[in-house]
Design goal:
mainly alpha, 11 helices
């Protein structure tokens, strides 16, 4: 969405709440996918995505164009929702394994998605889930960087915009996060080949998934 259209759409949203539907339609799939990559649980991703857009709608009146796109703003809110959930989860000391064991969906007006298909997709890519479990051992900023870079195919300039950091800082953090991930893999004594399969299965060939294979196993 170009800048002029974003500004026009924001102006309409302030007088016509239904205009927010355009923002929702254009960004829902990307935000849902990002959250699902962070948590590896479809029902939880549905709930957090719903919370993200509810919060965005409430905050829309305070949004001011300052060089941050609507998409980046939504990614920030989504990241905050995920991180808030993680903090609560760790404070309760309930995390012992699969997320679904400790997650109870709330009664929100979540959109009617193809949950069965999405769950089948997660099951199909079980190796990615194993990789995701190791990524979740990193701090939340590193999780965000790796997810945005290697599974959402974002450039470092976009990641910097989303996280509100300098592009050079994001490049350095990504490198360090990969080093941390390699150490976690070695500690768990899990074959690099399995993670290469996971990346190849979950990301399109020749794109970021291939880069992740090289970075992890190189």
């Amino acid at each position: 969405m170009d800048i002029s259209r974003e500004k026009e759409l924001l102006a309409r949203c302030r007088t016509d709440p239904e205009a927010f539907g355009e923002i929702y339609d254009e960004n829902f799939d990307a935000i849902f996918r990002y959250i699902q990559h962070r948590v590896s649980d479809v029902a939880l991703a549905e709930d957090l995505t719903s919370q993200t857009f509810h919060k965005a709608l409430r905050k829309l009146g305070r949004f001011r164009w300052q060089g941050v796109s609507i998409s980046a703003w939504l990614y920030r809110i989504a990241g905050n929702e995920v991180n808030s959930y993680l903090r609560k989860l760790y404070r309760r000391k309930k995390y012992e394994g699969p997320w679904a064991e400790h997650y109870e969906p709330t009664d929100t007006n979540a959109p009617d998605r193809e949950l069965t298909d999405a769950e089948a997709e997660v099951e199909k890519h079980g190796l990615f889930v194993a990789l995701n479990e190791q990524i979740r051992e990193l701090d939340t900023i590193d999780q965000s960087i790796l997810t945005l870079r290697y599974f959402e195919h974002k450039g470092y300039s976009e990641i910097a915009e989303i996280l509100g950091k300098r592009e050079g800082t994001m490049r350095m953090r990504a490198s360090r996060a990969l080093d941390k991930l390699k150490k976690l893999l070695a500690k768990e004594d899990i074959s690099h080949e399995r993670y290469k399969e996971a990346a190849a299965e979950y990301a399109p060939p020749g794109r970021a998934g291939a880069v992740l294979q090289t970075e992890i196993t190189g």
